[in-house]
Every structure is written in C-alpha cells, then in structure tokens.
Amino acid sequence: xxxxxxxxxxxxxxxxxxxxxxxxxxxxxxxxxxxxxxxxxxxxxxxxxxxxxxxxxxxxxxxxxxxxxxxxxxxxxxx
Length: 79
Hints:
The protein is an all-beta fold. It has one domain (3-74). Helix content is 0%, strand content 44%. It has a 3-stranded antiparallel sheet, with no helix packed on it.
C-alpha cells in the first residue's frame, strides 16, 4: 500500500483542487484531509469531497478561511 500527499494553502473560497494525476489512481475512500488554522482560531471542517476531485472546506464560525492543508490518499494503481 502506497500513500501520496499533497500540501498547500486553502483559498478564500474553501476549495482544494486535488492534483489531476490523482484521478482514477487513488482510493477515494482513503482520502484524509488535515487542516491547520493560520493567524487565528477557526472552526474548520471538510464539508464534502465530490468525486475525489476537490475538497470543500468550510468555517463553522462563518469567518473567512485562512488555513493550510495536507491531503493524503492511498494509491490504487502503481505505475
């Protein structure tokens, strides 16, 4: 079992576009998202991961999103 990782900063709209090369190569049920607030406390959560292509992040407190992310997933195929 091989895992892959993708890191970055969550944009203001709360959408994380997963890498194009992940499509069809990762187990969508294995996608794990870690969110880390930046500059202030935020009640961040993953609203959904539609089709394993994007991650929708929301702030329960209603404020703007300012955070970093790490997404990991298990490869279903190895090249």
